[in-house]
Design goal:
Layout (H helix, E strand, L loop, with lengths): L1 E5 L2 E4 L4 E8 L6 E8 L6 E6 L6 E3 L7 E6 L4 E6 L8 E9 L12 E2 L3 E6 L1
Parallel strand pairs: 2-11
Antiparallel strand pairs: 1-3, 3-8, 4-5, 4-9, 5-6, 7-8, 9-10, 9-11
């Protein structure tokens, strides 16, 4: 059972990246997926969440209007499209999965975690 986050990189402010979260060993179908990030010296924070059906999404205030979360259950992948990136978005981004049909906001609720992908936004 493994989650794999990918798609990070170095981008200039105002640029875009698309992160992917793929699963092996289990299906993401019945899982809420959360994207979290951790900047140097800071706590891990929730960025965006999507319910198992994809019908409900949530964004933190800091990324609302710039980031879009989506999922492809057939492809067992969840995406985070990040537009208009800012230097303060620089962090390691993690995806996590929690079984259930609700939407979950807290780190402790998540059972499976990917290893993280680094996003660096230069000014």
């Amino acid at each position: 059972v493994q989650l794999q986050a990918s798609g990070g990189g170095l981008v200039q402010a105002g640029g875009s990246l698309r992160l992917s979260c793929s699963a092996s060993g289990f299906s993401l179908d019945y899982h809420c997926i959360g994207w979290f990030r951790q900047a140097p010296g800071k706590d891990r924070e929730g960025v965006s969440f999507i319910s198992s059906s994809g019908g409900t999404t949530h964004y933190s205030d800091s990324v609302k209007g710039r980031f879009t979360i989506s999922r492809d259950n057939a492809g067992n992948t969840v995406y985070l499209l990040m537009n208009n990136l800012k230097p303060e978005d620089t962090a390691i981004y993690f995806c996590a999965a929690k079984f259930g049909d609700g939407i979950y906001y807290y780190l402790d609720e998540y059972s499976y975690w990917g290893q993280g992908t680094l996003v660096t936004v230069s000014s």
